[in-house]
């Protein structure tokens, strides 16, 4: 047996998330079904992490054991064309037998896209969160650096999470405004992210932009270690897992 | 009664086209249903032209008679928020009683988007046509100006069309390549377009780029006045009605 790592993209709109579950169509199930058909035996995959229903990926990483060595492009092409159209297989490479896409991930980058145009674009309804209220973008820009560094992010973690250590290090937190001024692109890079963390960070930043949370409140929100201290969880359709580094 | 003109955008993916038909969900039906509910009486609309199933609009124009004068933004907002999420109402204005969005249209602009990346992007599958074959973009650029001017475009019209006069004038025909080099954006502007005309023009241009039709063949194809002389009809998901001028 050999082990392959693959970089995949998916449109999360019609998935109940990445990870297999009892009900609902998942990315993991679709890929395992395709791999098992190609290999003519059961193939299971690891992913770098779960993504929720409606959340997208530009660079999710998976790995799987495989019976024989194959030309990489042949395997990539077979997997790309045989998975459904909402999954793309961008790259396949051979890795060490002990590679694990979740345990060995060193750095993850997420993007979050917000449609701030009026009216809401029909073309963005599954691909950006919509925010129709007033925004002072300068307030958001001034608040963003307060996320940088190593903190206990309990306040930015869903109460449903069972993870014990909620300390994470954020290397990058920024926002770009599109030339057309109707789209925000947030980028967050860190050593890992808690359940709903990026969505709660964005939900809080939008409240700051709207003036309903003070622009210097983030250090206090972090210090509170209480989910109720932060803003709401932004909608899943704006979130993209962009890149995982090893 | 007064008459309103509205500029609308729609994601054509889940529509059987613009125009009402016996079966299938249409843009016209959805808008007439909403307008009739708001007015509490039957309201019918005219459109600047039909779009096929899967074809999108950034600036389709409609007009309708209405019982009373209303503040424009109030009417726009009511219509925008009460139509389904795949229709957006961008602008509403009061027009002369004899305004007709189809008969008085002077100029139309269409865009056609092609995904030429590898692998095909899951995010573009409903919003761009996909072309995975080799393309010499310079050949396409050299061929495009041959569409300009006044011609009988019978060769670029679906055989199903019942229109008699197939002479149209094309003012603009060009192509932009995205910075990422994985996307083509064609723009065509003219006094009117025949049934499937833009899609057949693009289907022919892609064959020219791929070397299977000569780059100087367009004048002969036009002169043939025969649909079989041109290339295939490109897929509907790449086509956008961008603007209609009066």
From TrEMBL, chains A, B:
Q: Could you name the domain of life of the organism this protein comes from?
A: Bacteria
Q: Keywords in UniProt for this one?
A: Isomerase, tRNA processing
Which transformation does this protein catalyse, written as a reaction? Answer: uridine(38/39/40) in tRNA = pseudouridine(38/39/40) in tRNA
Instruction: Output the Gene3D superfamilies linked to this UniProt entry.
Output: Pseudouridine synthase I, catalytic domain, C-terminal subdomain, Pseudouridine synthase I, catalytic domain, N-terminal subdomain
Q: Residue ranges of the Pseudouridine synthase I TruA alpha/beta domain?
A: 6-103, 146-246
A Pfam family name for this chain?
Answer: PseudoU_synth_1
Protein family (similarity comment): Belongs to the tRNA pseudouridine synthase TruA family.
Annotated protein name in UniProt? tRNA pseudouridine synthase A
Q: Which gene encodes it?
A: truA
């Amino acid at each position: 047996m050999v082990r392959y790592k693959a970089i995949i993209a998916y449109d999360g709109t019609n998935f109940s998330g990445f990870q297999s579950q009892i009900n609902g169509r998942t990315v993991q199930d679709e890929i395992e079904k395709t791999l098992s058909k190609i290999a003519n035996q059961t193939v299971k995959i690891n992913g770098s992490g779960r993504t929720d229903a409606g959340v997208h990926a530009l660079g999710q990483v998976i790995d799987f054991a495989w019976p024989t060595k194959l030309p990489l492009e042949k395997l990539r092409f077979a997997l790309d064309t045989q998975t459904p159209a909402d999954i793309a297989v961008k790259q396949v490479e051979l890795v060490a037998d002990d590679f694990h896409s979740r345990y060995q991930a060193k750095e993850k980058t997420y993007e979050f896209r917000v449609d701030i145009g009026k009216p809401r674009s029909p073309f963005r309804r599954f691909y950006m969160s919509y925010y129709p209220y007033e925004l002072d973008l300068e307030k958001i820009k001034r608040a963003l650096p307060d996320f940088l560094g190593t903190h206990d992010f309990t306040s930015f973690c869903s109460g449903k999470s069972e993870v014990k250590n909620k300390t994470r290090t954020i290397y990058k937190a920024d926002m770009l405004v599109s030339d057309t001024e109707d789209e925000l692109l947030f980028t967050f890079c860190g050593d890992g992210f808690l359940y709903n963390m990026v969505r709660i960070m964005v939900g809080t930043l939008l409240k700051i932009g709207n003036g309903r949370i003070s622009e210097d409140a983030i250090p206090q929100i972090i210090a509170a270690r209480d989910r109720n201290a932060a803003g709401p969880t932004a909608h899943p359709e704006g979130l993209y897992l962009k890149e995982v580094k090893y």
